[in-house]
Amino acid sequence: MKSARPAMSPLLRALTYSRAAREPMIDAMLLRCYAALDAFDRGHGSQPLFMTLCRHMLVAEELCQLGHAPEFEDDITLAHEALVELDARHSADGAWTLNADEHARLCAALAVLSEQLEVATLEHIAQAEARMVTQSLVAANMRSDIGHAQAVSSAG
Question: 2: number of CA atoms within 13 Å, CB side?
Answer without folding.
Answer: 4
